[in-house]
Automatic annotation (TrEMBL), chain A:
One of its GO terms (cellular component) is proton-transporting ATP synthase complex. One of its GO terms (molecular function) is proton transmembrane transporter activity. It is found in: Membrane. The keyword Transmembrane helix applies. It comes from Candidatus Methanoperedens nitratireducens. Residues 22-81 form the V-ATPase proteolipid subunit C-like domain. This is A1AO H+ ATPase subunit K. It is a multi-pass membrane protein. InterPro entries: ATP_synth_F0_csu, ATPase_proteolipid_c-like_dom, F/V-ATP_Csub_sf.
Length: 85, 339
């Protein structure tokens, strides 16, 4: 009979992997939401400025993607979680 | 300021900031003073007013073309602001631009009162408010003051016009008071404290102008009080009552207590010219709104700043051209410019 107090190492490893995957998902997901919230106002402003003057296209685009760096941080953390641990 | 507030105003503020960048820079005005009217018209015809100058060029010439092009551009610009804004911003802009409805009603009533022709009246209307150009055309066609008032019976302005007894000044005051009372109500219901502050300062400046005019004309306290608009930020009703009762020199001295003294301190030695005082007060208003619009960049203030700046640009251009047409000396024209 198997002793219930002894946990199979294979199950422990699988659980840990699962938790790491959830962590990676949360990192990417939350960062995506944060970046989206940041881009919301900047994107609206960029479109407003562009509507008046097309010259603002380049600057507007650049400003709009700046909050994207947050999403990249999330992605980096997720990759570290998945492949380093 | 909450997140949602920033998002609400981001689009319209970026848009008006871009529009403001296209206004004529103030360094250009001294150059205009050295140009002839055809040169100024050509310059204007190549700027933001191109469409209007081209369109009206077939119908008008010289200063008339200039005047019509400026008015039409102003009306279209303000109408555009109403069209591109949403929700709270749209509500405040619409209410604020009712100023032009009041302006047009006054113009038409004055025209009818003095027997001006339809063409002459239409020269001065700016259809930037809720009354469209076609509505104004209908109003201009009506022959009498009473007829115009009756035609306006379904508009929100009727309560001010309703008691007309042959004195135009009375209903004009009523219109102004009604406009500001409604505007304060709109500001309070939208809970936009920036707008309310700007509005109350504007009322103060308007009251100051009225006080200066009436004081220099030697009017009595009771008559002056009838003209003043309630709701100012610094000049409360008690202050206005006190200021209205003082003789001119004491009235000027009493103003030192208020922050508006800064506006006229520079010309306090020579307060005989009302033009100087009004120009200084307008300048104060412009500097004030421009400054606070940078303090609160994601609010209604940059839009109001643009509305004020655009009106002053059109006024300045008109002053220059009209001044040149009547061959006024450069210094006199310069004294009238608000920049």
């Amino acid at each position: 009979m198997v002793d219930p107090s002894v946990v199979d190492p294979a199950i422990v490893a699988a659980n840990a992997k699962g938790i790491i995957a959830i962590g990676a998902g949360i990192a990417v997901g939350l960062c995506g939401i944060g970046a989206g919230m940041g881009e919301q106002a900047i994107g609206a402003a960029a479109v407003g400025a562009m509507a008046e003057d097309e010259k603002f296209f380049g600057k507007g685009l650049l400003m709009t993607v700046i909050p994207e760096s947050i999403a990249i941080f999330g992605l980096v953390v997720a990759l570290i979680l998945l492949f380093v641990f | 300021m909450g997140k949602s507030q920033a998002v609400k105003y981001a689009y319209i503020v970026a848009r008006v900031r871009a529009m403001r960048g296209k206004l004529i820079p103030k360094e250009m005005y001294p150059k205009f003073l050295n140009m002839d009217i055809p040169e100024i018209t050509r310059f204007i015809g190549e700027s933001e007013y191109k469409k209007e100058v081209d369109e009206l060029g077939k119908k008008y010439r010289g200063t008339d073309l200039f005047e019509h092009a400026l008015n039409q551009n102003l009306a279209l610009t303000y109408r555009k602001l109403i069209e591109v804004s949403q929700n709270e911003a749209n509500y405040i802009i619409t209410e604020y631009l009712r100023y032009w409805d009041v302006w047009n009603i006054k113009t038409i009533l004055r025209g009818k009162f003095s027997g001006a022709s339809e063409e002459e009246i239409l020269e001065d209307v700016v259809s930037a408010g809720q009354l469209r150009y076609r509505d104004l055309l209908e109003l201009v066609k009506i022959a009498s003051v009473e007829g115009v008032i009756a035609a306006l019976s379904k508009t929100p302005y009727y309560p001010a016009l309703f008691g007309y007894k042959g004195v135009l000044a009375d209903i004009e005051n009523n219109l102004d008071k009604l406009y500001y009372a409604n505007l304060i109500k709109a500001g309070e219901s939208s809970k936009d404290r920036f707008f309310l502050k700007f509005l109350r300062t504007e009322i103060d400046l308007k009251n100051l102008k009225i006080l200066f005019r009436m004081k220099s004309a030697g009017m009595e306290r009771e008559d002056i009080l009838k003209l003043l608009i309630p709701g100012g930020i610094e000049l409360k009703e008690a202050d206005l009552g006190r200021l209205a009762a003082l003789p001119f020199p004491e009235f000027v001295r009493a103003l030192e207590e208020y922050s508006y003294w800064k506006a006229i301190a520079g010309i306090s030695n020579d307060l005989t010219s009302l033009i100087n005082i009004e120009t200084q007060l307008d300048k104060y208003g412009l500097v004030n709104i421009t400054r606070i619009s940078y303090y609160y960049p994601l609010s209604i203030l940059p839009v109001l700043d643009y509305i004020v700046s655009k009106k002053l640009e059109v006024d300045n251009l008109r002053i220059i051209v009209r001044g040149k047409e009547t061959k006024l000396p450069e210094d006199t024209i310069k004294a009238h410019l608000v920049m």
